[in-house]
Design a protein that fits this description.
This protein has helices spanning 13-24, 41-44, 62-71, 81-86, 88-96, 100-114, 117-127, 146-151, 153-161, 171-177, 200-213, 318-322, 376-391, and strands at 5-9, 28-33, 48-49, 77-79, 134-135, 139-143, 167-169, 187-191, 195-197, 217-220, 223-227, 230-233, 237-239, 242-245, 265-274, 285-287, 292-297, 300-309, 341-349, 356-359, 366-370. The chain is an alpha/beta fold and 416 residues long. Strands 4, 6, 7, 8, 15, 16, 17, 18 and 19 form a nine-stranded mixed sheet that branches. This is D-amino-acid dehydrogenase.
Length: 416
């Protein structure tokens, strides 16, 4: 009997977990990526296992919030006007979903996905010998004002109702848990279910090494076309029984020919890395009002932020992004050190903040696994499991209609 084959387009965290899971199911695996493992957002993300990120980006009041942030030249939201006009339908859909019904439905879906994140990651981490790269010790959401903390009470209550434990801490409790926090904070919320990765590149490399050690191929080639029977690159045609598109923000260029109805745009994030001795921070922190995530990594402290809507390959806007990382030493000691490195990379974002997971309606041998936005790392393990179920003809372990590539969203966020 001929061994089934699969070509995965994309060597980020989602593509690599798909490759790992499919290889476990007996597929001969080829991964193709123009740059190799972990070259994009899989490397540069905040490295949080964001179990508490159950709310969609579009919520009631998002239009006003976005306008205020865009007017703030030191704020975390940046938009290239030409890019926005080019992708205007995406932004109109995004704004239309900013209502209570759509937000509630989206929150339900994302809580269902994120509640399964660890159960699909932990066996993988143990098998590839990468448990030392992940800390499951929780995270702190830190507030600079009592008013902001009070305004967020409902969001944490909703998380609690959906099974995400949230413990409110006063200033002294928060500083006892994380001494790098300063006396200027107003309080914090501890979320035990969260965690973080201490080296995103090593995690991706461990997955790639396991796949290649078991006979998989990893090709550094540019994909030019996807067909129902394989993948065309600049160097060769790679025939395969099935194809998985997991190329993050670059997946959108193949959407039309694959019959995908959900638009995806490039939402670039930025990070700076501070020296290892710059701060004693040992707990992942989200500065809620600043919208900056701070993560203790093996090579120093990573500070990540910014949502920049522009072409994924556009020139970096580091000078503008740098404003977002200024003044944070008021809340966390030592973070005013000079960064050693800077990074920018695109997230693949959908209007409803949900990934696209399913079969291509135009090419049934092509499976889609992209559009994870800020949650590619968190949902990588689950996505790999779902793609393996689809590829082997098993009934999906969750309802995939909410993630369908052909979903069309009404104002309530319901597939129609």
């Amino acid at each position: 009997m001929t061994q089934p084959s699969v070509t995965i387009v994309g060597a980020g965290i989602v593509g690599l977990t798909c490759a790992y899971k499919l290889q476990q199911q007996g597929f001969a695996v080829t991964i193709v990526d123009r740059e190799g493992p972990c070259a994009g957002a899989s490397f540069g993300n905040a490295a949080h296992m964001a179990i508490a990120s159950i709310f969609p980006q579009s919520v009631p009041g998002i239009a006003g919030q976005s306008w205020r942030m865009l007017r703030d030249r030191r704020g975390p939201l940046i938009a290239n006007p030409a890019y926005v006009l080019q992708h205007l339908p995406w932004f109109l859909k995004f704004l239309r979903l900013g209502n209570a019904d759509a937000a509630a439905r989206g929150t339900h879906v994302m809580s269902q996905l994120l509640s399964r994140a660890w159960e699909h990651w932990n066996p993988v981490l143990r098998d590839i010998g990468a448990t030392h790269l992940v800390r499951q010790t929780g995270a702190l959401h830190v507030f600079g004002s009592r008013q902001a903390m009070q305004n967020s009470h409902g969001a944490y209550l909703k998380r609690q109702q959906l099974g995400v434990e949230c413990r409110v801490l006063g200033v002294e409790e928060a500083r006892e848990m994380e001494p790098a926090l300063t006396e200027h904070i107003a309080g914090a919320v501890h979320i035990p279910a969260m965690g973080h990765v201490t080296d995103t590149r090593q995690l991706c490399q461990a997955l790639a090494d396991r796949v290649t050690a078991n006979g998989g191929r990893l090709l550094h080639q540019q994909v030019t076309a996807i067909r129902n029977d394989g993948v065309q690159t600049t160097e060769a045609f790679l025939p395969s029984s099935q194809v998985v598109l997991a190329a993050g923000a670059w997946s959108a260029r193949f959407a039309r020919e694959l019959g995908v109805g959900v638009p995806v745009v490039s939402e670039r994030g930025y990070h700076v890395r501070l020296p290892k001795n710059a701060s004693t921070l040992r707990t992942p922190v989200l500065l809620v009002e600043n919208k900056v995530a701070l993560t203790p990594m093996q090579d120093g402290l990573r500070m990540a932020s910014v949502a920049e809507f522009t072409h994924p390959d556009a020139a970096p806007y580091h000078d503008r992004a740098a404003f977002v990382f200024q003044g944070l030493e008021r809340w966390v000691s030592g973070v005013d050190a000079t960064p050693e490195t800077r990074w920018v990379g695109p997230r693949p974002s959908t209007p409803d903040s949900r990934p696209i997971i399913g079969r291509s309606p135009a090419m049934p041998n092509v499976l889609l696994a992209y559009g994870h936005g800020h949650l590619g790392l968190s949902l990588g393990g689950l996505t790999g499991s779902l793609i393996a179920e689809l590829a082997t003809g098993q009934a999906p372990s969750i309802d995939l209609s909410w993630l369908s590539p052909t979903r069309r969203l009404g104002k309530t966020g319901t597939p129609v």
